[in-house]
Amino acid sequence: MDLRRRFALLAVTVAATPLALGGCTAEERSADRPAQGRAAPPELTVTPTDRTRNVPLSAEVGTAVRGGRVTAVRFTDDRGAEVRGEPREDGSSWVPAAPLKPERTYTAEVTATGDSGATTTRRTTFTTMPAPTKPAVTSTLYFAGNRTYGTAMPVTVAFDPPIPKEARDDVQRRLFVKTDPPQPGAWSWVSDGSQVYYRAPDFWRPGTTITVRAGLAGLPIGKDQVGDDDRTATSKIGRQVALEIDNASKQMSVVRDGKVVRRIPVSLGKPSTPTSSGKMVIMEKHQQTTFDTRGSADPYVVDVEDAQRLTWGGEFIHGAPWSEGDQGSTNVSHGCTNVSAAAADWLMGVTQVGDLVTVKGTEVELTEGNGWTAWNVSWDQFVKGSALPVPSGLRPSPTTPAHPGAVAGGSPAPAPSVSGG
Question: Where is the composition biased (Low complexity) (predicted)?
Answer without folding.
Answer: 112-131, 402-421
